């Protein structure tokens, strides 16, 4: 009977099943999944079990975007090519994170400015530091200039 319950999805989440395997010595501690420690340290805010209540069709969904996500999305929309990003090198930050940091500094210094003005100021600050950004607006102006010739 117990074997039948363990195989059902509604008995518990995968986290609790893995926890049971670890406690019962069915799985060695060094064989635990990569996500296990992260899930244990930062459990979800809402219940993710089989009987979790999800919003209905017309109910509003909670936003999980951070303010920096909007800035980063705008950055990736306007920048054509960033090149390769090394995820193994922890000493350097990505260009988008560098841009978001500068944008955040400017936002705290100038809270009354519009987001587009802050974005343009951040682009100028990054370019002052010697990093050339290939922005889409340059491509659009090149197309307009070639059509008018």
UniProtKB/TrEMBL annotation:
Subcellular location, record wording: Mitochondrion
Protein name: Small ribosomal subunit protein mS23
GO biological process: translation
Name of a matching Pfam family: MRP-S23
Domain Small ribosomal subunit protein mS23 conserved: 7-130
GO molecular function terms noted in the UniProt entry: structural constituent of ribosome
Keyword annotations of the record: Mitochondrion, Ribonucleoprotein, Ribosomal protein
Signal peptide positions on this chain: none
Species for this entry: Syphacia muris
Family: Belongs to the mitochondrion-specific ribosomal protein mS23 family.
Cellular component terms (Gene Ontology): mitochondrion; ribosome
């Amino acid at each position: 009977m117990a074997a039948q319950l363990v195989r059902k999805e509604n008995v518990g989440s995968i986290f609790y099943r893995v926890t049971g395997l670890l406690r019962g010595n069915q799985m060695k501690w060094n064989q635990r999944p990569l996500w296990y420690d992260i899930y244990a340290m930062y459990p979800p805010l809402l219940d993710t079990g089989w009987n979790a209540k999800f919003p209905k069709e017309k109910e509003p969904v909670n936003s999980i975007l951070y303010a920096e996500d909007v800035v980063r999305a705008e950055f990736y929309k306007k920048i054509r090519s960033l090149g390769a990003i090394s995820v193994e090198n922890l000493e350097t930050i990505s260009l988008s994170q560098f841009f978001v940091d500068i944008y955040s500094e400017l936002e705290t210094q100038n809270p009354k400015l519009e987001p587009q003005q802050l974005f343009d100021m951040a682009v100028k600050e990054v370019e002052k530091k010697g990093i050339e950004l290939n922005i889409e607006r340059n491509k659009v102006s090149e197309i307009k200039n070639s059509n008018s010739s």
